[in-house]
Amino acid sequence: MTLLPYFGTIDLHDDYFEASFTTTKGQDVSLTIDFEGDEPKTTDLQRVASFLDRLEEQAKTIKDQLLTSAFAEEVEEYIDHHRSELADEPQMQSVTSSEQFVDALQLYAIRIYPTLEESFVSIDFTIDANLTQYVLMVNLTPDLSIHDIAMES
Q1: What values do phi and psi take at 140, rounded to 5?
Q2: 106 pLDDT band (50/70/90 cuts)?
Q3: Nearest to 91 by CA among 99, 144, 82, 43
Q4: Mean pLDDT for the stretch of residues 87-99
Q5: Percent above pLDDT 70 for the chain
Q6: What is the C-alpha end-to-end distance of the chain, expressed in Å?
Q7: What DSSP designation does 42 have?
Q8: How many helices (H) and strands (E) does the chain have?
Q9: CA 32 to CA 30: how far, in whole Å?
Q10: Is the pLDDT of residue 84 over 90?
């Protein structure tokens, strides 16, 4: 048994866990931890606990890097798609720059894969889950560097 923020006590005989939380901005976010059938090491659990302890701060840091990352082109494609598709939506009228669009992105889901080498965390951002089925999925390495970014449905 291990105690993790948001999840409480988890039984390591299982390999998949779900939780949810509401951000300080009032956004509901789903959380999962998936050990992919692997036996977690102590270091895996420590890394997960450390990430969860600073979850919103970590997500904001990643969001702040979107337009300057090596994957900025993918971010711009997501922005351009939604600017054209949602042009008539009132909330989009005041969003005139890519920076404003990224600032308006909301956390939607976070998936943690403690035992994977290249994709430790996957964070989904959305402009508005009620307006679009598409998310901007940001995959992070174990050191929380951006591994890749893609628009997903």
Answers
A1: -115, 145
A2: very high
A3: 82
A4: 91
A5: 100
A6: 35
A7: H
A8: 4, 8
A9: 7
A10: yes
